[in-house]
Predict the structure.
Amino acid sequence: MTDRKFLIIDTAILPDIYEKVLETKELLRTGKARGVTEATQMTGISRSTYYKYKDFISTPSEGSRGQKATITLLLDHTPGNLSDLLNVMADCNVNILTINQDIPINGIANVSITFDISEASMGIDEILEELRSRDGTSKVELIAME
């Protein structure tokens, strides 16, 4: 396995087993299960399935301390829209490193933001969901994490 490749894949196209492995890992991490046997029983997978996949499946939030993330957004070109998103990010305790905004075309601006997530109060997936839920935001996409 020297040529490892990593992908970000929408869970909608994956078998449920992968999400159940993530759930099992989360139960163990948070202490909601006392051990692997209890956690796998709670999620409905076998121990062997858990052990087969546990080292190969993770969320973008796992191990993200001390890292940077770059996202792109499509925003309605309305006053205060970008400012609102930056306030959301500040509430998540991320540090903005760069912001690039293209000239709005047809009332939509393409924005790229790179930020430090080392002190974030929530995982990158939760931050992205917060940004997606805001009015005036058409698209939020994780481009890279380091």
Observations:
- The CA atoms of residues 121 and 144 lie 19 Å apart.
- The beta strands are 68-76, 95-101, 108-116, 137-145.
- The mean pLDDT is 88.
